[in-house]
Design goal:
The protein is of the alpha/beta class and 403 residues long. It contains 11 helices and 20 strands. It has helices spanning 15-30, 45-54, 62-86, 118-125, 153-164, 197-205, 213-222, 276-286, 315-322, 354-364, 388-398; strands spanning 2-7, 34-39, 91-94, 101-103, 112-115, 129-133, 136-139, 145-147, 168-173, 194-196, 226-230, 239-242, 255-259, 262-271, 294-296, 303-311, 331-335, 338-344, 371-375, 378-384. Strands 3-6-2-1-9-11-12-10 form an 8-stranded mixed β-sheet, sandwiched between helices. It has a 4-stranded mixed β-sheet with strand order 5-4-7-8. Helix 1 (15-30) crosses helix 3, helix 2 runs antiparallel to helix 3 (62-86) and helix 5 runs parallel beside helix 7. Bound molecules: adenosine-5'-diphosphate, aspartic acid and magnesium ion. Magnesium ion binds next to loops. The site of adenosine-5'-diphosphate has 21 residues, from loops.
Length: 403
């Protein structure tokens, strides 16, 4: 079998953890498998590098940020390669560029355009175990290193697995699979044996960082056999992320996600005429700002209120963009003390009363809902951040997800 494995920050967070990863790979090699392992930076490393840059400025040059951030993954890829080599295996570490990962030039959030697998294929043929530095690529013209957005090593792994047609892509982390909600928040959370790509994509997009959302999207597109499991208990089977038709029993609600990295931007007394929303959201899109929920209230006296949410990481750029629109609104404010809780389940499509149950559960805890948005398979609610964990547990109970 050709296996693509990915080891996250905690799995390579110390030298003995890297040795543990080497032992996991050794077992597979001894079983006759070919292995390409993608590694993250040691846990905390990427945050530390971001803090270093912020010592000088809140808005550093993004090309330089990519140069800086990509270094963390290079360290762990070389260390793992050295460890395995010492155990008697032929290994080679590769940066994103060496692995042939070509991206657009949207620095710090680059998209993979193409993977040139020739170098990896040759190395496998020659009996090497390949260790790829995750989270990074190179611009199509080869001029600059890029990174793929936070949690991007998941994407590196899935994209490589898809491109090289691996038999499986296993994402090793510090929990042994996908749970009904973050087990650190709700200890009663239950592990799922399988989950559909679509539900996993929603959970990931709505804050469940166990998998990066773009990696799930890519897995669905390329039909990658994706498994989430733990490097701390590698003997335990993880969760399979697969096509909806491969799942017999479809629960109404599969999971609850929480996202604390959200800011609510409030524009009050916005001039109510055609083109205003278009101008604002085009300007935000031009800066690659991910706008999520948008609510416009009923106009009054020729003005209206416009609320939307963005990721905290985009706040500084958003503030800069919004300076163009100060004349269009009476007031613009930014509230970081909010969070988004979401309920996800494919069964929602065909059941009624799912939303009302959520609202009642939060009302019973005296939690006020500030914005609501729904789609076919999810309900999201913006609430005050201080109620985040309480809300997750209340919703988990309401849908009896521990049963
Ligand atoms: P890595 O560093 O290995 O990429 P992450 O920290 O990005 O790991 O993701 C793993 C974490 O995701 C877990 O420790 C867990 O707290 C969190 N998590 C959030 N939601 C879920 C969920 N539904 N199931 C499992 N883990 C979850
Ligand atoms: N090191 C990067 C991050 O912390 C990428 C990753 O771990 O997937 O976001
Ligand atoms: Mg991660």
């Amino acid at each position: 079998m050709l296996k693509v494995l990915k080891f996250g920050g905690t799995s390579v967070g110390a030298l003995d953890r890297i040795q543990n990863v080497a032992n996991i790979i050794k077992k597979m090699k001894d079983d006759g498998d070919d292995v390409i392992a993608i590694v993250s930076a040691m846990s905390g490393e990427t945050n530390k590098l971001i803090e270093y840059a912020q010592y000088y400025t809140k808005t550093p040059d993004l090309k330089e940020m990519d140069m800086l951030l990509s270094s963390g993954e290079r360290v762990t890829s070389a260390l793992l390669s050295i460890a395995l080599n010492e155990m008697g295996y032929k290994t080679i570490s590769m940066s994103g560029r060496e692995a042939g990962i070509l991206t657009d030039s949207c620095h710090t959030k680059a998209r993979i355009e193409k993977i040139d697998t020739s170098k990896m294929k040759d190395a496998i043929k020659d009996g090497y175990t390949i260790i790829v530095a995750g989270f990074q690529g190179v611009t199509l013209d080869g001029s600059r290193v890029t990174t793929l957005g936070r949690g991007g090593s998941d994407l590196s792994a899935v994209a490589i697995a898809g491109a090289i047609k691996a038999d499986v892509c296993e994402i090793y982390t510090d929990v042994d699979g996908i749970y009904t909600t973050d087990p650190r928040i709700e200890p009663k959370a239950k592990k799922l044996e399988k989950i559909s790509y679509d539900e996993m994509l929603e959970l990931a997009s709505l804050g469940a960082k166990v998998l990066q959302n773009r990696s799930v999207e890519m897995a669905k597109k390329l039909n990658v056999n994706l498994v989430s499991r733990s490097s701390f208990t590698p003997e335990v089977e993880g969760t399979l992320i697969t096509k909806e038709e491969n799942i017999m029993e479809k629960p109404i609600v599969s999971g609850i996600a929480l996202d604390k990295n959200q800011v609510r931007v409030g524009m009050y007394g916005v001039i109510d005429r055609p083109g205003v929303a278009s101008a604002i959201f085009t300007a935000l899109a031009d800066k690659n700002i991910n706008v999520d929920m948008i609510v416009q209230t009923r106009g009054l006296d020729g003005t209206t209120d416009l609320d939307f949410t963005i990721p905290t990481t985009d706040l500084e750029i958003c503030k800069k963009v919004m300076t163009q629109f100060t004349a269009e609104a009476k007031n613009i404010d930014y509230n970081e003390a909010i969070c988004k809780v979401s309920i996800v389940g494919v069964g929602m499509k065909s059941h009624t009363g799912v939303a009302s149950k959520a609202f009642t559960a939060l009302a019973n805890e005296n939690i006020n809902i500030r914005i609501i948005s729904t789609s076919e398979i999810k309900i999201s609610m913006i609430i005050d951040e201080k109620y985040a964990e309480l809300a997750v547990r209340a919703l988990h109970d309401a849908y009896e997800l521990d049963k």
